[in-house]
Design goal:
alpha+beta, 7-stranded mixed beta sheet, 14 helices, 23 strands
Length: 625
């Protein structure tokens, strides 16, 4: 009877557990839908707050079409891994959008309508193998108003910007009205037709980037009136600007208009400088400033001086066959030179400047002067004319004495500013002349360099699987886009501009490899020094001989040469031992990791389970008593 009761209790328990499982499944599918846990090390699938805000604020549905050649990519594990991650991110976007973002996956097989459609959208195809197959890996977005945006090819090395690029696409398609950026430039950011080559040169990458983000309206330098509907005014190397235009800018700022201005004591790409040759460019360079407007904005700027920085100086090649040398006037500002309290610069790694000036606040201006990018304390001013006619970067080192101060290369200025004009200039009628800023005051960002915008300082173009793509090696473009976004009030996009990579580096292995490479370099240097010393001794012996047989080595020379050859053999053996030890250490590290994953962790789980079972058995025995 007791055995029958136990069987009945077991059956009832199993039925209750089954009912509980079904109930929890129904509950989770209805009330817990969309709940996810991201347990990855870098929170790879956790969307930033800015992305969530953009998805919540979508005004209309957006369709996203992910084109990926599944079959062609069979032997490309890097692309398949990245495509899987990108697809999962897109699914997370769609899940968070509340049904307003619809994801479609498309496999454009060869000679299929889907492949024709991918080509019609402008997606880039990359040749794979020798059979003529092509790989498509791009994204197309569209809205109900026939608006369309395309990411032609998703590159794995651009993974950290994928969330930002995707959020920007969704934001612009959901809010089709682009903000208008007015551009007044004295540099050829968007070159016109070249009558010599009969071609239109490609515009600068910074212009292409801004043109994707905003509705860029080019304004001639000699224009008399600013357009009324500008959301942001960008000034780049405006030389010889008229008084009437200065007044228009002054009033625009006092009315609450936002300005992003780039000035320069030595603009290297002025007057047709070669973007790939800094030396020739410097000889043609000119300066620019905003004159009286800077005084009204509480800023000083010296057009006769540039900043040299020993700590941030970049290496340049002085000529063919010559070793690179550091150029005090071409500097790469690292993370410690960025303002980590300002969202536009906090997450940047490097920003490159060339022949840059510096900005400083005027005393008692009453305005807030906030540096965004600063030099190191190993910097000092240098006369701009020295860089203009510089024969060698080594010449700048001769009398360079750092002042110990940090110099602001870019700064934000805000607060209650006054007008630079007591009254409108002659010939301009303005019954609504403003003497002081309206509302909370002005909000502008100033740069003391225009070369920061040039391609050569932050972007490199190369052939990638048959396509010309641009890869950034510095954050110049990101900084400018950040500032433009923020001046226009788009803080959500700034918050998601970069994220961690899904590629987890083997930091311990990298450290071991770097240590081995350092030993290699030291040992090779010793070998080269010994070789040079042996050659010197042999030359001295030959010179000192009087027997006339200069082409035949004597006994002393042969002994010296043999000693060097023996030493060379010993050093090569040492180099091989260093490589062997590195391999052994990496393999030992791999074995330890395998032991932990395959043996140690399962044993730990077993011991915990056994301990828990023993504890429960002991509790039952105590309860039975």
């Amino acid at each position: 009877m007791e055995q029958k009761n136990r069987f009945l209790i077991s059956v009832v328990t199993l039925l209750l557990l089954l009912v509980l499982f079904i109930s929890l499944s129904i509950l989770s599918s209805t009330h817990l839908k969309g709940m996810r846990f991201d347990l990855t090390g870098n929170s790879l699938y956790t969307l930033s707050d800015g992305t969530r805000n953009i998805l919540e604020d979508m005004d209309e549905p957006v369709n996203l079409y992910l084109y990926f050649s599944e079959d062609v990519s069979r032997d490309l594990p890097q692309f398949r891994s990245y495509a899987r991650w990108a697809g999962e991110m897109l699914e997370e976007f769609a899940e968070r959008s509340g049904g307003k973002l619809i994801l479609h996956r498309v496999n454009p097989e060869p000679f299929s309508p889907e492949e024709d459609q991918a080509a019609r959208y402008g997606l880039q195809s990359a040749p794979v193998g020798s059979a003529g197959d092509v790989l498509y890996f791009g994204l197309v977005g569209s809205n109900l108003l026939d608006g369309q945006q395309v990411m032609p090819f998703l590159q794995p090395d651009k993974e950290k910007f994928f969330e930002y690029d995707l959020a920007r696409m969704v934001s612009s398609l959901s809010h089709p009205q682009q903000l208008k950026l007015g551009l007044i430039s004295g540099l050829p950011l968007k070159p016109g037709f070249d009558p010599v080559t009969r071609r239109t040169p490609e515009s600068w990458m910074i212009y292409q980037q801004l043109d994707q983000l905003f509705d860029v309206q080019d304004i001639p330098v000699d224009t008399m009136m600013l357009p009324d509907d500008l959301d942001l005014l960008m000034l780049v190397h405006v030389k010889g600007i008229s008084e009437s235009m200065l007044y228009q800018i002054d009033q625009y700022v006092l009315q609450g208009g936002r300005v992003l201005a780039f000035m320069d004591p030595l603009a290297e790409l002025d007057a047709g400088g070669d973007p790939n040759d800094p030396a020739s460019s410097l000889n043609a360079a000119g300066s620019s400033t905003l004159g009286p407007l800077l005084d009204a904005w509480g800023v000083s700027f010296d057009t006769g001086m540039v900043i040299g920085d020993r700590a941030y100086a970049l290496q340049v090649s002085p000529g063919a066959g010559q070793p690179p040398i550091r150029h005090l006037g071409i500097i790469s500002i690292r993370k410690e030179g960025m303002n980590d309290m300002d969202v536009v610069s906090a997450d940047l790694e490097t920003v490159n400047f060339s022949s840059t000036g510096w900005l400083a606040p005027l005393p008692d201006s009453g305005l807030v002067f906030e540096p965004l990018v600063s030099s190191s304390d190993s910097a000092a001013p240098i006369e701009a004319s020295r860089l203009r006619y510089l024969s060698s970067p080594r010449d700048l080192e001769a009398d360079f004495l750092p002042t110990g101060d940090q110099y602001a290369l870019a700064a934000r200025v805000s607060g209650p500013a006054g007008s630079a004009f007591a009254q409108p200039p002659e010939g301009i009628a303005n019954d609504n002349h403003l003497s002081v800023a309206q509302g909370k005051g002005i909000n502008i960002v100033l740069f003391a360099d225009t070369d920061i915008l040039s391609d050569r300082l932050w972007v490199q173009k190369q052939n990638f699987l048959g396509q010309i793509v641009a890869n950034s090696f510095a954050d110049n473009g990101t900084l400018v886009a950040n500032i433009a976004d923020q001046l226009l009030g788009s803080s959500d996009l700034i918050a998601i501009r970069a994220r961690a990579s899904s590629s987890r580096p083997f930091e311990r292995v990298d450290a071991l490899r770097l240590s081995a490479e350092a030993q290699f370099r030291d040992t090779e240097k010793n070998l080269q020094d010994e070789l040079a010393e042996t050659e010197r001794k042999l030359t001295e012996m030959q010179t000192a001989r009087q027997d006339g047989e200069l082409t035949v080595l004597n006994t002393e020379q042969q002994d010296e040469l043999q000693r060097f050859l023996d030493r060379k053999l010993a050093i090569r053996t040492q180099l091989r031992q260093v490589q062997h030890d590195l391999t052994q250490e990496i393999e030992a590290l791999g074995m330890r990791l395998k032991f932990m994953n395959i043996v140690l962790v399962p044993l730990l789980i077993i011991f915990v389970a056994l301990g828990f079972g023993h504890f429960r058995h002991k509790r039952r025995l105590q309860g039975g008593k």
